[in-house]
């Protein structure tokens, strides 16, 4: 419990530092933040209005405090470049990005787990060797390369899936949802599966040599049960940690995938907002993404603490 | 299905792409039988008489999204915006296939003897979708609101205004009112403006519900949820993604058989900025109709016989280099500008960036426009002379460096690189900056510091009068004041000709003025035109009714893309077979 | 060394050969007749007219430039930036990591907090944000007119490399610090600085080399992503990411424009990964996920 509170406190601290830094960064090099925000096309009075509304001439700390205060009421400000409140924009665009991420993780796991298990089981066999090379290859393929190849061969040549992805909610039309998300999610999922295959395989090999596995074998338990239930459970931790570690890269990949496959998510809006100097949107989205990364890490840490008593106690002793 | 296989021979194109602010409808005035290629370029659909099938959803994909509110005063209306806006707004008038102005919401528009006062009679029996009536008061409200907008005001400079800035309009009865002209807004000096009614077919003529406009001002309604009187009503809008509209069940227009328009139940307007992705979307059947101006997409699609190719190649935009004449620097020197033009082989440029599909531009007016000349006397490809001119300039004034800005599309990137190479061959260092489209426009509007030379596309239209506010010196507000005359061009010769052209009723004489303006551009190298744009609408064969929307008086059909190529009217579209 | 018959490690040999060959080509490009000049636009190949293995080695692109030549010039700049960034990242991050791992307690807590914050930012997001802001900075202020895209991107990539490197070095330092020879040195009375430089640093080197190789691979990928999103070096310098992004629209008519740079990028990243992996295995370093 103490551990949880400690970590939560750390989380909040990191959140504050990160969001403050984001705000500072978005103001670098800006001659007139009010004009940047209001867009080029407006009269001076409107620019002044914007400046007053967001207190842009006051010191950073005050502006930041204002932003945090508004955050509580979920008021992220208004995007003049898009003529809608940032809140509305987020509502429209969060789900597609979320789905890309979730499906990418899902595909990654779907590919990695069976592959790793079989590779660890039949270590150094033909399957293992081939998979090892393949996963190395996918590891080395940048998302844009995978995207180019996938979109060309599957999207353009075979026409199986649309190259211009449209967001269809899972609950509206599962088949269309699947069709639209598969290319972008696969692009990211392949890279993830490569990382996880290697990780899981190494970890499984380690686990398979431990005593309790030998005991299970001695007791006559079937290999399948040993692999899928006991060994996997032991190695699940490092897998979960890896998911947390990969979040940052996954988000970056999602931004590229959204642009590439024209999926209307927030990554695409972020790029647009950066180009447009739409400072509030940039602040809001970057803060949100950073939070996701930190939150996932926090959850994993807490999860660890729950299942591994040593961690809890180690803190207590210190 | 009909498709045109003949295309222009290799011509250079600067694929420089910028949104055309074509605020003006083009209409062919008078008996202009000298329209080159009038019959090979048409926006009328084939004359197969298929019985319209009501119902269905159409998915349209368009090129660009300038995120806007949808209030007519504030929209930066490019062609895709016009396509969408005319689905839920009705304009006061439209340009017909016969290139005349036909009243739409207006039953009639009559000018007095010297075209200084216009009497507009609004068609009775029409309401906005929120129930409020379309009457003279509503139209007057809109005209005041829109003509006061930042972007439209310059175009309406010569309309008489009261002291409070509103237009001088007098209502004669519930449905009729008059509108007066006045030089620079002065009611005491009326301006003869024979082609003014064509302005009512443009953004100026879009009519939204005054009640909604008032609510937006008060903050109780959202500016991106428009209410008009058009064939479709607004359902949803996600900027950068898509807009959905559905059939207006109480729309006032009927087709010639008395069937109520529109036929479609719903339209989904998607934004796909990448033209190749848009092409793929059509080819894979994800969308039903696309509008594009990218020759790299038009070429393969035009060769694909499974799609209907509707050309819009007249009265289109010119791809040119827009130069900021207000910024101190080498570009203020005529020789430097002309040298930059001489360094470019337009034909090679078009081959490299436009798949050889476009026609090289010999002037600032595209084919069909008043003032079109095959060669306006501007700079010809001549690298040696260009090099000499630059060297001469540099020996007196130091190095010539240019900042060239363009949008982020792949074609523009290519053009930028081509120009960079061509200009470095004559000794000019170029820095290429790629900026997102709407930011580029606002940079031009405000005359931003790094706005020196833009790869630009603009000036669709029929009459030279429609370009008046782009080129008129009285609109050359120095930066950082906003100016629609982006280049801050102020040439007394051109100003004089523009004023004459505005008030000239005789088309032949007017054409003479327009051609002179074109020649002046060539002489001074105020801009450097490279090619004429070609737009195309590609659709699945089952999409019918393109170009078949009738005008309310029944004498013609509404001409698609009149002044803003890439637009089609959606009233008569339906899906069959 | 270990076995009587040693099987030749093909992947490593190939990887090393590729990298060495590429580096030589990249840095002598200006002197080689079959590369120099081919990166300029030429009327002959205009409009993707020539495919691979014709008068243009890997085909010509839209403006008539040889794709092969552009790839080699791209190698020059991409490699230079990636190497430079990772070295800076290693020096700074490595130092931080060593301090944190060796001295522990307060310095460790401070540095760990710092790396936590840095790692909370999704890398590509920060990359485009900071690059974008640097663009604005350059435009708006005289003092920063030297801040060209090349510098911006190098700077950003270096910053992004610091935190992961600090973490890895910290972990390595921690494990090395527990080893006997360090204890021995300390019990002999060696001062901290001496221990750091004499005992710890030399043992860090193999890990560092492995991480540098893998790091270059990651940065090359990152640069590719940035170029795709539009944040690349100023024109007309080619980088692989830009080549891929530029030509991908023409993949149907001229697949070589995009596929060739893709292959080059892939081969190079793969080679770096292979070498980094081999070095790590050779020196028995625990895999630390970057």
CA-based gyration radius of chain A: 24 Å
Largest sheet of chain C: none
Q: What is the number of helices of chain A?
A: 13
For the largest interface, the chains and their residue counts are: A-C, 53 and 53 residues
Structure summary, number of beta strands of chain A: 2
Provide the structure class of chain C. mainly alpha
Helix content of chain A: over 70%
Q: Tell me the overall shape of chain A.
A: globular
H-E order of chain A: HHHHEEHHHHHHHHH
Task: Give the key terms.
heterotrimer; B: 577 residues; alpha+beta; D-Maltodextrin-Binding Protein, domain 2; Dipeptide-binding Protein, domain 1; 3 domains; seven-stranded mixed β-sheet; 13 helices; 23 strands; 24% helix; 18% strand; globular; disordered N terminus; C: 290 residues; mainly alpha
Write up this protein.
The complex is a heterotrimer of chains A (318), B (577) and C (290). Chain A has 318 residues and is mostly helical. Chain A has helices at residues 2-27, 33-38, 44-53, 60-72, 86-121, 126-139, 143-157, 174-208, 211-218, 223-261, 266-276, 279-307, 309-317, and strands at residues 78-79, 84-85. The two termini of chain A are 15 Å apart. The model of chain A has no long low-confidence stretch (mean pLDDT 82). Chain B has 577 residues and is an alpha+beta fold. Chain B has helices spanning 79-88, 136-147, 210-218, 275-283, 295-302, 334-342, 346-353, 383-397, 410-424, 437-446, 468-471, 492-503, 507-524, and strands at 57-62, 90-91, 93-95, 101-103, 106-111, 117-122, 169-173, 176-180, 206-207, 232-238, 242-247, 266-271, 289-292, 308-312, 318-323, 359-360, 401-406, 429-434, 453-458, 528-532, 535-539, 543-544, 574-575. A 7-stranded mixed β-sheet of chain B has the order 10-11-12-1-13-21-14, sandwiched between helices. In chain B, helix 6 (334-342) runs antiparallel to helix 8 (383-397) and helix 12 (492-503) packs antiparallel against helix 13. Chain B starts with 56 loop residues before the first strand and ends with a strand. Chain C has helices at 10-28, 67-103, 105-120, 123-140, 149-177, 180-187, 192-228, 240-247, 256-282. Chain A binds chain B through residues 39-43, 81-84, 89, 92-93, 155-156, 159, 162-164, 166-167, 262, 264, 268-269, 272, 275-277, and chain B through 61, 67-69, 76, 150-151, 222-224, 238-242, 270, 272-274, 277-278, 280-281, 283-284, 286-287, 408, 435-436, 438-439, 441-443, 445-446, 448, 482.
């Amino acid at each position: 419990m103490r551990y949880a509170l400690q970590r939560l406190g750390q989380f909040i601290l990191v959140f504050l530092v990160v969001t403050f830094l984001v705000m500072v960064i978005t103001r670098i090099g800006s001659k007139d933040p009010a004009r940047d925000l209001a867009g080029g096309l407006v009269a001076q009075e409107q620019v002044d209005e914007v400046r007053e509304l967001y207190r842009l001439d006051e010191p950073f700390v005050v502006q930041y405090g204002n932003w945090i205060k508004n955050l509580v009421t979920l008021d992220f400000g208004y995007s003049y470049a898009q003529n809608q409140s940032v809140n509305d924009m987020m509502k429209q665009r969060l789900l597609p990005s979320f789905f890309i991420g979730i499906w990418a993780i899902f595909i990654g796991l779907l590919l990695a787990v069976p592959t790793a298990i079989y590779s660890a089981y039949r270590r150094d066999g033909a399957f293992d060797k081939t998979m090892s090379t393949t996963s190395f290859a996918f590891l080395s393929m940048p998302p844009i390369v995978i995207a180019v190849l996938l979109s060309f061969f599957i999207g353009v040549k075979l026409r199986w899936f649309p190259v211009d992805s449209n967001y269809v909610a899972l609950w509206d039309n599962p088949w269309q949802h699947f069709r639209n998300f598969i290319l972008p999610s696969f692009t990211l999922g392949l890279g993830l599966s490569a990382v996880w295959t290697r990780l899981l395989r190494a970890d499984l090999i380690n686990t398979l040599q431990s005593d309790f596995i030998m005991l299970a074998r001695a007791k006559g338990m079937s290999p399948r049960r040993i692999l899928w239930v006991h060994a996997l459970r032991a190695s699940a931790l490092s897998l979960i940690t890896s998911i947390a570690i990969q979040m940052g890269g996954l988000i970056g990949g999602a931004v590229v995938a959204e642009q590439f496959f024209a999926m209307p998510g927030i990554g695409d809006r972020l790029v647009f907002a950066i180009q447009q100097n739409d400072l509030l949107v940039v602040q809001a989205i970057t803060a949100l993404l950073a939070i996701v990364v930190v939150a996932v890490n926090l959850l994993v840490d807490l999860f660890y603490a729950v299942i591994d008593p040593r961690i809890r106690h180690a803190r207590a002793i210190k | 299905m009909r498709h045109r296989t003949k295309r222009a021979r290799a011509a250079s194109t600067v694929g420089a792409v910028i949104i055309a602010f074509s605020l003006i409808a083009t209409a062919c005035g008078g008996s202009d039988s000298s329209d080159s290629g009038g019959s090979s370029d048409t926006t009328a659909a084939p004359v197969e008489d298929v019985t319209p099938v009501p119902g269905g959803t159409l998915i349209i994909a368009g090129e660009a999204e300038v995120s806007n509110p949808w209030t007519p005063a504030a929209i930066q209306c490019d062609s895709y915006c016009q396509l969408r806006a005319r689905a839920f707004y009705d304009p006061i008038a439209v340009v017909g296939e016969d290139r005349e102005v036909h009243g739409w919401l207006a039953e009639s528009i009559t000018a007095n003897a010297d075209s200084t006062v216009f009497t507009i009679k609004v068609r009775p029996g029409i309401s906005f979708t929120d129930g409020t009536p379309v009457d003279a008061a509503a139209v007057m409200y809109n005209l005041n609101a829109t003509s006061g907008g930042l972007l439209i005001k310059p175009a309406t400079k010569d309309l008489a205004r009261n002291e409070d800035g509103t237009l001088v309009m007098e209502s004669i009865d519930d449905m009729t009112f008059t509108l007066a002209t006045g030089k620079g807004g002065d009611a005491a000096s009326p301006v003869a403006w024979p082609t003014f009614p064509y302005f009512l077919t443009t953004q100026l003529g879009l009519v939204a519900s005054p009640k909604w406009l008032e609510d937006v001002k008060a903050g109780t309604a959202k500016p991106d949820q428009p209410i008009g009187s058009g064939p479709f009503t607004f359902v949803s809008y996600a900027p950068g993604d898509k807009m959905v509209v559905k059939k207006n069940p109480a729309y006032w227009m009927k087709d010639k058989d008395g069937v109520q328009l529109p036929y479609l139940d719903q339209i989904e307007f998607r934004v796909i900025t990448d033209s190749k992705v848009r092409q793929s979307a059509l080819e894979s059947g994800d969308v039903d109709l696309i509008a594009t101006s990218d020759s790299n997409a038009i070429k393969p699609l035009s060769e694909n016989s499974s799609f209907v190719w509707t050309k819009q190649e007249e009265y289109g935009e010119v791809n040119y280099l827009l130069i900021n004449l207000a910024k101190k620097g080498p570009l203020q020197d005529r020789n430097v500008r002309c040298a930059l033009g001489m360094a470019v082989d337009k034909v090679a440029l078009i081959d490299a960036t436009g798949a050889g599909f476009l026609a090289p531009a010999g002037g600032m007016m595209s084919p069909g426009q008043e003032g079109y000349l095959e060669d306006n006397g501007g700079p010809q490809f001549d690298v040696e002379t260009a090099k000499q001119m630059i060297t001469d300039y540099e020996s007196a004034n130091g190095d010539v460096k240019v900042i060239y800005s363009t949008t982020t599309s792949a074609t523009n990137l290519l053009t930028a690189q081509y120009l960079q190479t061509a200009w470095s061959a004559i000794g000019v260092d170029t820095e290429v900056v790629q900026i997102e489209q709407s930011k580029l426009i606002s940079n031009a509007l405000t005359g931003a510091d790094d706005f020196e030379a833009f790869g630009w596309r603009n000036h669709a239209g029929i009459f030279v009068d429609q370009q008046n506010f782009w080129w008129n010196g009285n609109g050359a507000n120095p930066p950082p004041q906003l100016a629609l005359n982006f280049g801050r061009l102020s040439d007394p010769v051109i100003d004089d000709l523009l004023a004459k052209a505005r008030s000239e009723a005789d088309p032949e004489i007017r054409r003479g003025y327009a051609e002179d303006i074109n020649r002046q551009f060539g002489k001074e190298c105020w801009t450097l035109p490279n090619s004429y744009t070609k737009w195309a609408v590609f659709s699945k064969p089952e999409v019918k009714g393109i170009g078949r929307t009738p005008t309310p008086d029944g004498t013609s059909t509404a001409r698609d893309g009149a002044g803003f190529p890439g637009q089609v009217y959606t009233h008569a579209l339906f899906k069959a077979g | 060394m270990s076995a009587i018959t040693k099987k030749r490690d093909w992947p490593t040999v190939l990887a090393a050969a590729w990298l060495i060959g590429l580096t030589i080509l990249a840095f002598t490009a200006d002197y080689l007749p079959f590369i120099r000049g081919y990166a300029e636009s030429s009327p002959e190949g205009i409009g993707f007219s020539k495919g691979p293995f014709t008068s243009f080695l890997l085909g010509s692109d839209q403006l008539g430039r040889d794709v092969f030549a552009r790839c080699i010039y791209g190698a020059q700049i991409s490699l230079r930036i990636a190497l430079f960034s990772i070295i800076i990242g290693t020096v700074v991050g490595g130092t931080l990591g060593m301090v944190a791992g060796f001295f522990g307690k307060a310095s460790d807590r401070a540095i760990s907090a710092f790396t936590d914050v840095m790692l909370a930012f999704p890398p590509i997001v920060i990359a485009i944000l900071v690059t974008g802001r640097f663009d604005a900075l350059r435009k708006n202020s005289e003092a920063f007119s030297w801040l060209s895209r090349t510098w911006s991107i190098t700077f950003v990539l270096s910053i992004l490399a610091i935190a992961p490197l600090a973490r890895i070095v910290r972990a390595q330092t921690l494990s090395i610090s527990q080893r006997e020879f360090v204890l021995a040195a300390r019990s002999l009375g060696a001062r901290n600085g001496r221990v750091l430089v004499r005992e710890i640093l030399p043992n860090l080197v193999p890990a560092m080399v492995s991480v540098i190789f893998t790091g270059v691979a990651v940065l090359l990928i990152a640069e590719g992503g940035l170029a795709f999103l539009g944040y690349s070096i100023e024109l007309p310098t080619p980088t692989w990411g830009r080549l891929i992004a530029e030509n991908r629209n023409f993949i149907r008519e001229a697949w070589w424009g995009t596929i060739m740079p893709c292959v080059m990028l892939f081969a190079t990243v793969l080679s770096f990964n292979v070498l980094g992996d081999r070095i790590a295995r050779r020196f028995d370093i625990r895999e630390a996920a970057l």
